[in-house]
């Protein structure tokens, strides 16, 4: 690779004309978002309009789990879906599922079927379009070809995808003006084990609902029949020029830069956050939003993030299982649309060393089928006893099973971001804010919360205090009851908890599953305590509730932290509190096997013992493989790019020195000699580090078990990767720009 390739790539990005997409029209005006929202989704409204009333009623009962889906209903739904999809250009359908690969999977089947009839004693074959109920309900991908942690072997390949009736079918663009019908599905083995992210998510949702409804029933709520987790996923990502991306083997293969020095200016002036979105980026994001609106994805917010070329898109809250589907659709749509604009979207948690990485902030809460948010404190949280019970249940679950949450966010990529002054550390804690902390402290100390007040706070209005800005043209504004703590991994932010440690590249499913599980178990424990406390009374009294709340405030108190989670002092304090500080992925993965955590998942029926061990081995194997791939990529880049560039530069310097010596000049003190000595030393260091890296890679590959590979990769390969990078980055400073083989940070980020 030469400097000319880099220059041509930069010029291509500058000179390339922008892509324009026309916004849909409604008559003589641009369409409102509400008018195009969900037009490519076959939802319950579409089914109600196309199915006979008795068939639709049976289908609704099936969705609610009150009866199984019979063949006639399935055939009717399949026919309605086929007509709807084909009228909109669909030629194929696919079961769309979420294997444990960190992405989604699909296999396309056409609607084409051949029908043979006997006419005048002769067989005649004709082509028809057909889509049966059995095709809608079930498909059969090869289960041995996806991560399964040893539950499937090569000769035991059968697996099933099964339609998830709780998530609507949708259309996505195909080639040449066609489209494809997507059927959200779960993925299981021949024996019924979960091989995906969706199956255990749906299990956890049912468990959580059952536990929450029981508690509400004890409190006297007989109307609520279902409770579900809601989720809002703030998706961060980088967008860079695709021509430059194509010249970086590390970005293409691993998703992050394995070499490269930080440019003189990056994010230190704090001028990128919420700045004006670059026009080329805005065009790409706007086109992605247009497609997402049509797919029923409620994207709400877009803005520049902290780092150069880093951005965020955030949606409106939805039921967790649908929100996760929509997050994966959002990522795939951004990927496809970015290519149309000659851009590349990077979801890796740390694509550029030295600048902020990306997260996926998962805003989690609980809602009822009556429309109530159970984590809404309202204006008087001190007397909102239902809220207090669900709040302490959440805190108790996070306290008891923080290790599970830490395991859910562990990956080779997210490891670069956690604890790096841009994301929470490996210590799981919860932030409540000043007001709720005082409420819980008052209850714990048995102060009368029914006459609770905080003298230092002004009159409460619209959920907070009033701020007078002392400017006559500006209105008074309502301030929230608490500030936000951006360093907390699990922070309460008004009427939800924000799980900030989730990685930008990963599916939100597993973190949500484990959060659901932990809280469901605590809800059950609290319900039992409340029943015992109330005794023979039909409903618990306020004092009964406060007694139970007080117990769980005390038992979960160590998980609450209001300060700076990035500080060294917090590490010391967390250790005193007995909170684990899990720094490495292998250690985090082993939390799944700890009896206190594994028994939780097994007893709740969310995962079997085999499924837990399978996931543990998949995570360890992927971790080791990710690091080995990074090691091989870096070694190749050094051997084939960086070192040859260094040798060429050294030859140039040597030739200059020879020519000066031939002129009779003293070359011992000239800058060329000094530079040559420095470059020679750095080159030697780089080669030594690269050879050490090769040796560690060979040792990792020589091990049989993925657990042993994961440990060795985590302990030694990560260190060796950093040593090689350090040596390469030192050379980048000295080697002339025309010799350097790869696009630099300045070109990638600006």
From TrEMBL:
InterPro entries: Gln-synt_C, Gln_synt_N, Gln_synth/guanido_kin_cat_dom, Gln_synth_cat_dom, Gln_synth_gly_rich_site, GS_Type-3, GSIII_N. Residues 91-192 form the GS beta-grasp domain. One of its GO terms (biological process) is glutamine biosynthetic process. One of its GO terms (molecular function) is glutamine synthetase activity. Residues 197-642 form the GS catalytic domain. SMART domains: Gln-synt_C. SUPFAM superfamilies: Glutamine synthetase/guanido kinase. Pfam families: Gln-synt_C, Gln-synt_C-ter, GSIII_N. The lineage of its organism: Eukaryota, Fungi, Fungi incertae sedis, Chytridiomycota, Chytridiomycota incertae sedis. Belongs to the glutamine synthetase family. This is Glutamine synthetase. It comes from Geranomyces variabilis.
